[in-house]
Amino acid sequence: MYMTKHLRLYISPSFLSRFYTSRDVQFILNHFKFNGDILDYGCGQKPYSNMFKDCNKYIGIDFPDYSINKDMHNGKPDIFLGKDFLKNYKLPFDNNSFDSTVSFQVLEHHIDPKMMIAEMARVTKPGGYILLTAPFLGGLHEEPHDYQRLTKYGIKVLLENNKYKKVFKEQGSLFSTISLLFNEYLTSYMFHRNLKRYLCITIYPIFLLFSYLSFILDKFIKSNKIFLTILY
Questions:
Q1: What kind and span of H or E run contains 114?
Q2: Among 28, 95, 113, 204, which residue has the least CB neighbours within 10 Å?
Q3: Contact at 8 Å (CB) between 62 and 75?
Q4: CATH of the domain at 161
Q5: Reduced to 3 states, what is the DSSP secondary structure of residue 71?
């Protein structure tokens, strides 16, 4: 049933990064209690909300023109960010409003990542968790609102400045990264009405197969300097 519902995910160019995120979020949830009220900052269609089964409320906030995830979708934002947000980047919540906050693949789209993490810390109750993922290597996306790629050391500093200890996990390795970059390159031509589009559609199954093969290759040839995503 799950595979049928999410068939698009399994043939998506972004399959690897989304699979790793789902797997590692579940790992975090098995070891840390995310209960009470959860805020999903930049939630989009809340692709991972159904994994937070022990929470009281799962509240998503995003812009009215939020990005639509066609591979994984579990809803829509509960609250929309207004124009005032673009003036100071402050969330419309009081201090300590949520037991924990999460954010998935949003940090690169925030023009001020320092402010983003500071706001997540501000609205999180003492003793609560901040969970976020951010890409390390990958092509431009959702342009022009793609502002940076931070290393794990850069995000570590931002978290520690807000008195949060970091627990990070690198997702994927050399071959996963190569696969994703190839798939993103092919996808960029699939929307063109020319010969390149049909060529890309024809050879895409080969690169999709390479994506699945990357799971095995990454186990034999590992890298702690080249990877897809960082989960904190």
A1: helix 113-123
A2: 95
A3: no
A4: 3.40.50.150
A5: coil
Cα(108)–Cα(110) distance, rounded to whole angstroms? 6
Q: Specify if 56 maps to a domain.
A: yes
Q: By three-state DSSP, how is residue 107 classified?
A: helix
Q: Does a structural domain hold residue 182?
A: no
Q: At residue 189, does pLDDT exceed 70?
A: yes
User: For 48-61, what is each residue's pLDDT tens digit?
Assistant: 999 999 999 999 99
Identify the CA nearest to 147 among candidates 191, 184, 115: 115
Helix axis angle for 174-189 and 15-31, nearest 10°, is 130
Q: Whole-prediction pTM value?
A: 0.88
Q: Is residue 225 part of a domain?
A: no
Q: Where on the phi/psi map is residue 73: left (φ > 0), alpha (ψ -120 to 50), or beta?
A: beta
Number of domains in the chain: 1
Identify whether the C-beta of residue 162 lies closer than 8 Å to the C-beta of residue 148. Answer: no
Domain of residue 37 covers 18-171
